[in-house]
Write a structure and sequence with these properties.
Helix content is 62%, strand content 11%. With 261 residues, the protein is α+β, with helices and mostly antiparallel strands. It has a five-stranded mixed β-sheet. A hairpin with a 2-residue loop joins strand 2 and strand 3. It is flat. The relative contact order is 0.10.
């Protein structure tokens, strides 16, 4: 086959396939954007409906099990829609060819902390620079009971309160929402005793917050958190994080409102 014949075949077939792929990508991008808008609108509807139902039940002075279950289901739907909305945003970024920007901008929808994906750059750097560091993992002690008693929307507000408290005490560090009600912060060039003091101050501040229900002003009681602290260097961050998690669980099992490690 001559060079001219090969060039003709390329123009005839490959150029058309590129046009087809480009058209498909455009359609996928448009559909993803439309689905994202619908998801966002649905999230707003469930959020508003949950508040309305809670108000009606509260004003009636009753809280039957059926009503509690209905509100909890709405809370679950609201949270799942928020997660779906974030996933659609990530899909849109991939379709638009901006996937490489995701790790540094990937944030949790509820607290605006870095999510686990967004923390990967920070964790990778820990294994390459060779310096020691301190990781502290925080978690609420009784979030399951609070969710069961007041509903997940109140639980989400309490998680936000913990995130806000941690930011106040670790202003120079990125806060990462690792999972559920657990957060991690990474400190460099600091002694573990100094890091422990800051963590203890944060736990004390959380226990002293007077968190109230938005609609009734009712105080939800003392809300405490615990923490696991570890030092890492020249080892897999997954191992360090597992030790931090184990210390956190130990602190919470020992009565909570304390730090282990």
């Amino acid at each position: 086959m001559s060079r001219k014949e090969a060039s003709t075949l390329v123009k005839r077939f490959l150029s058309k396939s590129k046009l087809v792929l480009g058209a498909r990508e455009k359609v996928i991008a448009q559909q993803t954007e439309q689905l994202g808008v619908l998801t966002s609108e649905a999230h707003q509807v469930t959020s508003g409906l949950e508040r309305d139902v809670a108000n009606v039940v509260t004003q009636a002075g009753e809280w039957p099990n059926a009503s509690r279950e209905f509100v909890m289901r709405l809370s679950d739907a609201e949270r799942e829609l928020a997660e779906l909305r974030d996933n659609l945003a990530k899909l849109q970024a991939r379709v638009d060819g901006k996937e490489g920007d995701l790790p540094s901008n990937s944030r949790d929808a509820l607290t605006r902390s870095l999510d686990r994906d967004g923390s990967q750059d920070l964790l990778r750097k820990l294994t390459t620079d060779g310096r020691s560091y301190v990781i502290i993992m925080f978690g609420l002690d009784d979030i399951e009971e609070l969710n069961e008693k007041y509903g997940r929307s109140v639980g989400d507000n309490i998680i936000n309160a913990l995130a806000s408290t941690l930011r106040d005490h670790f202003q120079e560090q990125e806060l990462v929402r690792w999972s559920g009600n657990r957060f991690i912060t990474i400190l460099k060039d600091i002694a573990i005793m100094q890091a422990r003091v800051i963590a203890e101050e944060a736990l004390l501040a959380m226990s002293q917050r007077r968190l109230r229900l938005r609609d009734t002003g009712e105080w939800v009681g003392v809300v405490t958190a615990s923490a696991g602290i570890v030092v890492g260097q020249h080892e897999l961050t997954t191992d360090v994080l597992e030790r931090a998690r184990a210390n956190l669980l130990s602190a919470s099992a020992a009565g909570g409102n304390q730090i282990k490690g």
